[in-house]
UniProtKB/TrEMBL annotation:
This is Nitroreductase. InterPro entries: Nitroreductase (IPR029479), Nitroreductase-like (IPR000415). The keyword Flavoprotein applies. It comes from Absicoccus porci. Keywords: Flavoprotein, FMN, Oxidoreductase. Residues 9-60, 68-149 form the Nitroreductase domain. GO terms for molecular function: oxidoreductase activity.
Length: 171
């Protein structure tokens, strides 16, 4: 699959099979995050890999739109040491995008679950809840969670007709 095909194939997958993911596949997805560029090459991103079903269930209760995390084969919590970079949000976002593209290339379903600036049902900051669950240092800041699993649903690829060309402004 070439890069253009990869871009069209990438879809947010929220339904996963019960089949375990190959550890080498998960490692390749993580390597994509590690290879992602960062501002001044400071590499502030930290990746917490969750495969424990109890912890996945805990993470799935933080916000209503993330309930599918509990059915994932794995999840990667993407944080950054904010003391290393003032653009940690961008760095983490690039790393998450790289991991999503690698997952697609390896035929693994993925979905980005936004956590930054979100609250749980009790009004508690989702970032603090996640950091408490994984024991992350206070200097770490959370961008999101990438759920991963073998897709139980195959969505059709996007087409060029799906894009809104009116968003392009030529000057």
């Amino acid at each position: 699959m070439n890069f253009e095909e990869l871009l069209f194939q990438r879809r947010s997958i929220r339904k996963y099979t019960k089949e375990d993911m190959n550890p080498d596949t998960l490692q390749k997805i993580l390597q994509a995050g590690l290879l992602a560029p960062s501002s001044r090459n400071k590499k502030p991103c930290q990746f917490y890999v969750i495969q424990d079903k109890d912890i996945l269930k805990q993470l799935s209760t933080i916000k209503p739109s993330g309930t599918f995390i509990g059915d994932a084969n794995a999840a990667i919590i993407v944080m950054a040491d904010a003391s290393l970079s003032d653009v940690w949000i961008e760095d983490c976002s690039i790393a998450m995008s790289y991991m999503q593209l690698m997952a697609t290339a390896l035929q693994v379903g993925s979905c980005w679950v936004q956590m930054r600036k979100r609250t749980n049902a009790l009004g508690k900051d989702a970032e603090e809840v996640v950091k408490e669950i994984v024991g992350a240092p206070q200097t770490y800041r959370l961008v999101g969670i990438l759920s991963l699993g073998l897709p139980a649903q195959i969505l059709p690829p996007h087409t060029i007709d799906d894009v809104d060309a009116s968003k392009i402004h030529k000057i």
